[in-house]
Amino acid sequence: MAQDEFDVVVMGMGPGGEDVAERLAEAGLSVAGVEAELVGGECPYWGCIPSKMMVRASDLLAEGRRIPGIAGDSTISPDWSWVARRIRDEATDDWNDKKAADRFTGKGGHLVRGWGRITAPGEVTVGDRVLKARRGIVIGTGSQPSLPPIEGLAGTPYWTNRQAMEADTLPASLVVVGGGAIGCEIAQVFARFGVRVTVLEAAGRLVAIEEPEACDLLAGVFAADDIEVRLNARVERVSHDGQGFTVHLGDGERALGERLLIATGRRSDLVALGVGAVGLDESARTIATDGRMRAAEGVWAIGDVTGRGAFTHMSMYQADIVVRDLLGEHVFEAEYHAVPRVTFTDPEIGAVGLTEAQARERGLPVRTASTPIPASARGWIHKAGNHGFIKLVASEDVLVGATSAGPAGGEVLSMLTLAVHDRVTIDRLRQMIYAYPTFHRAVHEAVKQL
Ligand SMILES: Cc1cc2nc3c(=O)[nH]c(=O)nc-3n(C[C@H](O)[C@H](O)[C@H](O)COP(=O)(O)OP(=O)(O)OC[C@H]3O[C@@H](n4cnc5c(N)ncnc54)[C@H](O)[C@@H]3O)c2cc1C
Ligand SMILES: NC(=O)c1ccc[n+]([C@@H]2O[C@H](COP(=O)([O-])OP(=O)(O)OC[C@H]3O[C@@H](n4cnc5c(N)ncnc54)[C@H](O)[C@@H]3O)[C@@H](O)[C@H]2O)c1
């Protein structure tokens, strides 16, 4: 077996692994980046970037349809080929990672293509190559779709996010199993391009991890988009007859679709990574780390595999900590009290920190306040497409969580993230000047209620 020695071996070149590998190589360390598929990971090829290109297109359609009553008439003719072309040419380079690979090797990194497995402390094996890591191994191997145990599913041509992002043409109808972030974003995009969409969600709410008000909001918007939503759905069996899918539900009902998208969460396979070789529990769902992202002696973990929120910004936040730790620089320890997340539906559902229910579960003395966006000056001016609300969750004299749902809800979230992150007091938020007439001014109204 060929054996190579490096300072650091990075397993998985997703957003986090790529950042670690590039920055360490730039700093002069010898770095091997091991990648089984495409350098860049899920986000640029099948995740954030192509999905947000879809969202941008579908938001434009929605805005165009809002012209009557405000700015004249409009006739909207959606054409998916523009979206598919943009994703192919601009987002993914036809699912080719040459640019990203060259960027890494151009910085002195050593790219090893193939599946990496930890075979001993300080050792990663890729095919017939053994990579020795003098200083450490960084695990940034991300996640894969988690498939529910539905009878008949395995033998059918169902979609995951991958096929949805690669779709050149749209089906006439789509059944989406899972009403979380992926399911909701894709359901709305496809519906606005004319696809008949049914969402089947096992929980009693859409985007179930967020405030119940967010679900109510999306349920109303989805109804207006002609999306059929079935909550508390029990998907029992799936069949495909060569033309389309029949999804059999526990209540005897059925849902029919030309395509079926499974969007029921994501998982990491720790057995396949061989983490038992460094003393980690392979039966766990995720890799636990300390504040410096250290998982074991000489092993760091970042991104989806750590289970701290499957977001690109989380992966890159943790990557920064690892780079500093490995370079012997000042390290701030990871904090998770102000994790922001945005579901890019229209309206966007932005949230940070704890929901009201989570705060109560922790036994915190909780006060909440909420204001509707349509009642704000900007919401009233906006007139159409102005659904949303601000909800604040306070404990003692600070915010511990907040939701910003509405037009640009993800952008409005930034000030709330800062407030939760830095524990700005409600008094100080009350005293702040909020520009008029902005969507974020609705935050002031909610703060005043507190
Ligand atoms: C449809 C969709 C939309 C999304 N939208 C957003 C969004 O808007 N905003 C946001 O913040 N997040 C979004 N996400 C989540 C985001 O894509 C992930 O959180 C992020 O990509 C995780 O980064 P990561 O560094 O953990 O690794 P990943 O991006 O998962 O990459 C891991 C890489 O490791 C490789 N790998 C795995 N195991 C091995 C191995 N043993 N050896 C070698 N290589 C290996 C994989 O091939 C992969 O390339 C979205 C995800 C999806 C699916
Ligand atoms: N905008 C963003 O930041 C963004 C967008 C997409 C994805 N993501 C990340 O990717 C992760 C995965 O997204 P996701 O939507 O697959 O997962 P998710 O965990 O957000 O939602 C999955 C949903 O599927 C439901 N479900 C599970 N099993 C089911 C079944 N058998 N039948 C019906 N419903 C079922 C769950 O109740 C849940 O509501 C997210 O957690 C998120 O972190 C982020």
From TrEMBL:
Domain (Pyridine nucleotide-disulphide oxidoreductase dimerisation) ranges: 339-446
GO molecular function: flavin adenine dinucleotide binding; NAD(P)H dehydrogenase (quinone) activity
Keywords linked to the UniProt accession: FAD, Flavoprotein, NAD, Nucleotide-binding
FAD/NAD(P)-binding domain location: 6-319
Binding site for FAD: K52, G116, T141, G142, S143, D304
Cofactor dependence: FAD
Cofactor binding note: Binds 1 FAD per subunit.
Lineage: superkingdom: Bacteria
Sites where the protein binds NAD(+): G178, G179, G180, A181, I182, G183, C184, E185, E201, G265
Disulfide bonds: C43-C48
Record InterPro entries: FAD/NAD-bd_sf, FAD/NAD-binding_dom, FAD/NAD-linked_Rdtase_dimer_sf, Pyr_nuc-diS_OxRdtase, Pyr_nucl-diS_OxRdtase_dimer
PANTHER family referenced in this protein's UniProt entry, alphabetically: MERCURIC REDUCTASE
Family statement: Belongs to the class-I pyridine nucleotide-disulfide oxidoreductase family.
Protein name (record): Pyridine nucleotide-disulfide oxidoreductase
